[in-house]
Amino acid sequence: MNLRRILKHLLTPHWIVARTFPRRTLDAIAAAIQASEQTHEGELRFAIEAGLHATALVRGSTPRERAIEVFSALRVWDTEHNNGILIYVQMLDRHLEIVADRGISARVLQEQWDAVGRRMEQAYRRGDFEQGTLAGIGEMTQLLAAHFPLRGAPRNELPDRPVVLP
What are 55-75's pLDDT values in tens digits? Predict the structure, then answer.
């Protein structure tokens, strides 16, 4: 257990997310998700968390483990064709995870999602949160359109608006 990491997470205010992802950036992300879902059968969900809760810290949860918890809590798995994808940003650990449901992961390898996530993290390290996110969503759109092209009218089973976790 890393005491410094625990204190950092517990003492960092939640509102720092709004400095990095202001309303206009959240609006741009929502619009990009909505446009993306017009071209493929996948369902994207974007979640941002400033710091981890005490229980996750004491357990020593990794960002991947927390992303899977958020995937479940936001019910990203609850789509008719198991085609939900979560983009999870954990700000204090400066980590991003992409979690794909089994319908998606049957055709797109996790390594491909990880590569997109690492490029998004590189943009974030440069302070380019909005464009880094939009570029990542663009890459995800290309992968999804290639493997899961839209058949029929688009469906929207998950909210497009990013969620800022408390």
Answer: 778 788 888 999 999 999 999
Would you tell me how many other CB atoms lie within 10 Å of the CB of residue 136?
25
pLDDT at res. 113: 97
Is residue 36 within 8 Å of residue 140, measured between CB atoms? yes
Say what the pTM is. Answer: 0.91
Average pLDDT, the chain: 92
Measured between alpha carbons, how far is 118 from 110 in angstroms, rounded to an integer?
12
E-assigned strand segments in 18-61: 43-49
Rounded Cα distance between 153 and 162, Å, is: 23
Domain regions of the chain by residue span: 3-150
Which CATH code, of 3.10.310.50, 3.30.460.10, 3.40.50.1100, 3.30.70.330, is assigned to 3-150? Answer: 3.10.310.50
Q: Which long-range contacts (CB under 8 A, 24 or more apart) does 32-35 make?
A: 32/133, 32/134, 32/137, 32/138, 33/137, 33/160, 34/156, 34/160, 35/141
pLDDT single digits (tens) 84-126? 999 999 988 889 999 999 999 999 999 999 999 999 999 999 9
